[in-house]
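cron nightly-structures :: item 1 of 1
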Amino acid sequence: MPRELLILRHAKSDWSAGDAGDFKRPLAKRGKKDAPRVGAWLYREGLVPDLVISSPAQRARQTAEKVCKSMDYKKKKIQWHDEVYGADVQDLVHLLGRCSPAARIVLLVGHNPGLEELVLYLAGDELDRQADSKLLPTATLARLEMPDDWSTLTWGCAQLLTITRPRNLVD
């Protein structure tokens, strides 16, 4: 079975949350609805990860927790990494390079623009973008087939399998 990387941008955040600041901005109502739908879809598709890595920012944390709850993945097993928040491609590649060789499926929950840049780097191709030019709008999941060794992630080393948006999921 090949390795897979699931890259999930956090669900829709609540910009009206007042003085919360970027790091503490929570999920909006739509985000609270979309995140568990993504988790339920992953569960139905048999894509329950061996490892979940997430930004600790509030909106990413809430997304990861809701997705994991829907997959029956224990919240205490989520790895919170400060470097995911505001990460660029090299930060994310370095983080993924430290994944256990036993992890066959890894879910990474974080933020744009880093996640979009990571997908483009790993896939190594020009990908079709939606009309709004966003590859990963909120709560969108990119699924990539990865090389056998997490520590050898180079440009174009992965194959993009799917990009799944919450609006396309059937409950």
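cron nightly-structures :: done
The mean pLDDT is 92.
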